[in-house]
Design brief:
The protein is an alpha/beta fold and 420 residues long. Helix content is 33%, strand content 19%. Helix 6 runs parallel beside helix 10 and helix 14 packs across helix 15.
Length: 420
């Protein structure tokens, strides 16, 4: 895509991604306008003033048609639903060209991109892929939905470099020309049904990862995804399947990606042996009086909690709840035999209880996470696990799953201090 024809560019959102976009666009000599729904007081005054000195125009407290009308291009945050949000409808009504940050950043690199998506595990797989490729290639970048905006480093990349990107369904909605050398869908389960009308719409967003690939590219797909055969007729890239046995799908997929780049199995073993896991993903926090506390705050859907329950070996007290995404909580039923008690918090607690009460009786509701954790500890026996695996998004009580997980860690550490 030719960025030269776009002189004035509107950026929707002024969080981490929006800030990175502003810096990129300023470096390109563009006139930049930022529209942010939160108030100016929610941002450091020095940050806003520094961008104003660079010529950036701001609109805080909402997105107005008047502010965006003279833009040649609009770049949206992944959180913006173009189909249903007011700003999305405004952009459509004004016939403004519109892309997401991942798409725009991809215009400025000739590096080969390894793009990884899926419902669960994509962050871990992205990080493992990055660590593995670094063992063989001198320059490898990691970014995307993992928390490092692509636009923050894209101008540093060179054709011989590799870029590993975690990409979400929200980011894939707004791509036009984005073309990975390797695309990967690690798994596919219902998710984000508060944004998508049904699973089919969610699936269609995910499969956009393949749409610009060519025959010299690679599509790495979990053969256990029910629609994988349906995709064969649509995908132009070489298809490589993984998931032939009971091996962990992250490991199986990593081996397949390694085969594309000719990486020896010894490198894979070394990468896996040194990898200690990522925060908020089945993270062991502390053992207090022989009760183990596990932080799985990243489990924002029932299939992630199902995976957690499947992989713990000891009796558990499950702490769950948050903002409902329209998902089916009964999917965890096959593994509730391991659970002694369920403590529920957040907006979704009543819905979760209603879904499970005919199958599981020991359910209790709490007004906050602290009370739920303290009760779990009181009801746990030696050798039990207190598993914080919410099944929901965090946006009812916290700004993101990281803040939620950190709060859980703080509560556990305070409990630990009491029982030294």
């Amino acid at each position: 895509m030719n960025i030269e024809k776009f002189k004035k560019i509107g950026v929707i959102g002024f969080k981490k991604t929006g800030i990175a976009l502003c810096k990129l666009l300023i470096s390109l000599g563009k006139k930049v306008k930022v529209s942010e729904k939160e108030s100016e007081e929610d941002f450091p005054s020095s940050l806003v003033e520094n961008f104003k000195k660079e010529g950036v125009k701001f609109e805080f407290g909402g997105h107005s048609e008047r502010f965006l009308r003279d833009c040649d291009l609009v770049v949206i945050s992944p959180g913006v639903d173009l189909k249903r949000s007011l700003i999305g409808k405004t952009i459509h009504r004004l016939s403004l060209p519109c892309v997401g940050e991942i798409e725009l950043a991809s215009w400025f690199t000739h590096s080969r991109i390894i793009a990884i998506t899926g419902t669960n595990g994509k962050t871990t797989l992205s990080f493992l892929t990055f660590l593995l490729l670094k063992k063989k290639f001198p320059s490898v970048y990691l970014g995307g939905n993992i928390g490092v905006p692509f636009s923050s480093f894209v101008r540093k990349t060179h054709p011989q470099d590799l870029v590993v990107l975690e990409v979400s369904s929200f980011q894939l909605e707004s791509i036009l020309k984005f073309r990975p050398y390797v695309s990967c869908i690690i798994n596919l389960e219902p998710d984000h049904l508060d944004r998508y009308s049904n699973f089919e719409e969610y699936k269609e967003a995910k499969e956009r990862i393949f749409m610009n690939q060519k025959k010299e590219d690679f599509a790495v797909i979990n053969r256990n995804i029910s629609c994988c055969k349906e995709w064969e007729g649509k995908i132009k890239a070489k298809i490589l399947y993984f998931g032939d046995n009971d091996e962990n799908e992250n490991i199986s997929c990593l081996k397949t990606i390694a085969s594309i780049f000719g990486i020896e199995s010894s490198y894979i073993k070394e990468t896996l042996s040194r990898f200690k896991g990522l925060p908020h993903r089945m993270q062991k926090i502390a053992q207090i009086k022989e009760v183990l506390f596990i932080n799985d705050s990243k489990a924002t859907n029932p299939s992630a909690t199902l995976w957690a329950l499947k992989n713990i070996k000891k009796p558990a007290i499950l702490i769950a709840g948050g903002k409902d995404k329209g998902l089916d909580y009964t999917s965890i039923l096959p593994f509730l035999g391991k659970v002694k008690k369920i403590n529920l918090i957040g907006e979704a607690k009543e819905k979760i209880r209603a879904s499970l009460k005919n199958h599981f009786k020991n359910i209790q509701l709490f007004s906050d996470l602290r009370n739920a954790v303290e009760d779990a500890f009181l009801n746990a026996s030696c050798g039990d696990v207190v598993l914080f695996s919410p099944m929901c998004s965090s946006f009812d009580m916290f700004s993101n799953y990281i803040e939620r997980g950190n709060y859980f860690i703080r509560i556990v550490n305070e409990l630990k201090a009491k029982f030294k």
